[in-house]
Amino acid sequence: MGRSAWAVRLASLLAFGLVLGTVEASLGDVDRRYRTCVRECQTTGIIGENNISHCQSKENDASVGGSWYNQEQIYIQWKQLNCMTDCRYFCMMQREGERQSLGLSPVKYHGKWPFLRVSVFQEPLSAALSAVNLLMHFTGWLSFFLLVNYKLPLRTQTKRTYYEYTSLWHIYAILSVNAWFWSTIFHTRDIDLTEKLDYSSAVALLGYSLILSLLRAFNVKDEATRVMFAAPILAFVTTHILYLNFYELDYGWNMKVCVVMAAVQLLTWAVWAGVSRHPSRLKLWTVVFGGALAMLLELNDFPPYMGYADAHSLWHASTIPLTYLWWSFIKDDAIFRTSTLVKKAK
């Protein structure tokens, strides 16, 4: 009963953090000259010396013909989407050039800093580092899978692993790979769809990670009790994802929610490591301390250096070694629990 009440209080705390969020507009995209530039670019397809090939007149669009269900054909919609994206990029670069000539600092446009493109990559450094993080999680998951299924002893009758949290870590790995995949895609091509998939995947991963930290810290093994632990947080996370996708993608609000969930789980892991005297607690504390420092990069945002490296990309860089150490701890925990249970079985 006490554990259930604690979980309810935690969900209330997260909901309170959500309510504190405020609607914020970026300074760049409310600038009159920027908005005028984007509007004219979408109409003419020309901005300065740049000719946006994706932008075309309505007459040309109509000449292609509609599909059988009376909607625009997909490639026309794609052209219009690229037209808007390219117009925003070139107008942003033009406006930032004007601001720089006046000695003004960079500002955000649509919640993002002005980055310099490299080929199709809109945020090349963040995209590359996201791909590396994806690879780190996949290799960590693979080594964990080989460990628990082929290197550690299995239960004699069921041939299942002794480690009680094997399936939970498999789900965590899938959510991690999915989150970093969409992070890579989003930083490569920033459109409404990839943005929502990136944010939704990240929130889902954080919510599940919070649940997993509580289940491991309180050593919850019974399936019914696990569901009782997870239900309030799952309801909250699902509501938040629906809000982001179908009501408003509020960056400030989402940041507060993610920071609260991340802080609670880091605190949970840190306290549990000390109380349980886990043999690999030093690894866990290093991940917790490193994760807390990495969160400061997200909270103390700054414009991209030379148009490429901002606080968010540095956060992506910091999570690479932390991910390696994190999966090392997970494997140590599997070895520790398996050894303990095998001794009890004997």
From TrEMBL:
Keywords: Golgi apparatus, GPI-anchor biosynthesis, Membrane, Signal, Transmembrane, Transmembrane helix
Any one GO BP annotation for this protein: GPI anchor biosynthetic process
GO cellular component: endoplasmic reticulum membrane; Golgi membrane
Function field: Involved in the lipid remodeling steps of GPI-anchor maturation.
Protein name (Swiss-Prot/TrEMBL): Post-GPI attachment to proteins factor 3
Signal peptide: 1-25
GO MF, one example: hydrolase activity, acting on ester bonds
Organism: Sorghum bicolor (Sorghum)
Primary location: membrane
Entry's transmembrane regions: 125-148, 169-187, 199-215, 227-247, 253-275, 282-299, 305-327
Topology with respect to the bilayer: Multi-pass membrane protein
Family membership: Belongs to the PGAP3 family.
Pfam families: Per1
Record InterPro entries: Per1-like (IPR007217)
Cellular localisation: Endomembrane system; Golgi apparatus membrane
